[in-house]
Amino acid sequence: MPRMRPIPAIGQARGVSSPGARDVSAVLALVARVEETQWLRDVDGFVSLLAPQAVWTTAFGRQIVGAPAIHAFTAAVLPNLFRDFQALYDVERITFLHADVVAVNVRQIPVDAEGNRRPGEDEGRPLYILRRHDGAWRIVVAQNTTHQNEKIAAQQRAVDEATSGETHAHE
């Protein structure tokens, strides 16, 4: 039985018309295809989802520019370095920035080959900027960020302390 995917939040920038179901479905299908190509180690299929001038920034901060360079990098790491890594890609938010430009926030959940959560591994939080060209959505910019629970919690505590101090200073 297929896994139930969460329903993403859908939004749009001011002045952008509400997106149609067809565009939302196409964006979800593109992210599903990213997941599928990663699972299959299908480098060519993955790169076919990118615009020729795409910019890809890895979770470690390496920036790769252009589909040919992204292809070379992916061909080197996907079947080798990440051969035992699988992930589920859940779309959390789709924001239509323009009729032909969309930002997609993804939750990348590390799992084993059976789809069970891998304990102790950080999730990813990719952000994809897609552009529609000739009727098809393509990734033009991607930034993957490692989700670091402990550092996020520490940051939130610091923010809470800072804003708590501001509140008391104004009383």
Structure description:
This protein is α+β, with helices and mostly antiparallel strands and 171 residues long. Helix content is 36%, strand content 34%. The chain has helices at residues 21-40, 43-47, 67-81, 149-169, and strands at 9-12, 50-57, 63-65, 86-98, 101-111, 123-124, 127-133, 136-143, 146-147. β7 (127-133) and β8 form a beta hairpin. The longest helix is centred in the C-terminal third of the chain and has 21 residues, at 149-169. The radius of gyration is 18 Å and the shape is globular. The relative contact order is 0.16. The mean pLDDT is 88.
SSE diagram, text form:
Blueprint: E1 9-12, H1 21-40, H2 43-47, E2 50-57, E3 63-65, H3 67-81, E4 86-98, E5 101-111, E6 123-124, E7 127-133, E8 136-143, E9 146-147, H4 149-169
Parallel strand pairs: 1-4, 2-8
Antiparallel strand pairs: 2-3, 4-5, 5-7, 6-9, 7-8
